[in-house]
From TrEMBL:
The protein's name in its UniProt record: Sporulation protein YlmC with PRC-barrel domain
SUPFAM superfamilies: PRC-barrel domain
Record's signal peptide: 1-20
Residue ranges constituting the PRC-barrel domain according to the UniProt record: 41-97
Lineage: Bacteria, Pseudomonadati, Pseudomonadota, Alphaproteobacteria, Hyphomicrobiales
InterPro entries, A to Z: PRC-brl_dom, PRC_barrel-like_sf
Domain of life: Bacteria
Keywords: Signal
Length: 140
């Protein structure tokens, strides 16, 4: 019966010392990300506004579709609606979307400035809002 309290005290006294010897896994300043250079966080691409060639907003990206190898196949664009009511979801292949960080300029992968932005400012799709609404609806 006296052995149990002795073992409990021994473990409680030795555990802070053992934990203090473990190196911390904190990121260093050297591991901080550099300029995004065309590599964007998926969570930040979701919600990006989609415009057409005439600079009219036609929708926004609501989901990304990824294949089994991890490659992004397409984006689900939400067209129309208000607060989730009446929205029309359309799947668009990624090669049809062009990304940009400035209005009127498009790019296929690089950011237009040297800031550490991990997302594009906008996506441009060569279509109209009516054409998107006429496309078959994407169903989950």
């Amino acid at each position: 019966m006296r052995i149990f309290p002795a073992v409990l005290i021994a473990f409680s006294l030795s555990s802070p010392f053992a934990m203090a010897q473990v190196p911390a896994n904190t990121p260093s300043a050297a591991a901080a990300p550099i300029a995004a250079a065309g590599k964007w966080r998926a969570s930040k691409v979701i919600g990006v506004n989609v415009y057409n060639q005439a600079n009219e907003k036609v929708g926004d990206i609501s989901e990304l579709i990824i294949d089994s190898s991890g490659r992004v196949e397409g984006a689900v664009v939400s067209v129309g609606g208000f607060l989730g009511m009446g929205e029309h979801l359309v799947a668009v292949p990624m090669n049809q979307l062009k990304f940009s960080n400035e209005a009127g300029k498009t790019t296929t992968g690089t950011t237009s400035s040297n800031t550490k932005e991990w997302y594009p400012d906008r996506a441009v799709l060569n279509t109209t809002k009516d054409q998107l609404k006429a496309m078959p609806q994407f169903k989950y």
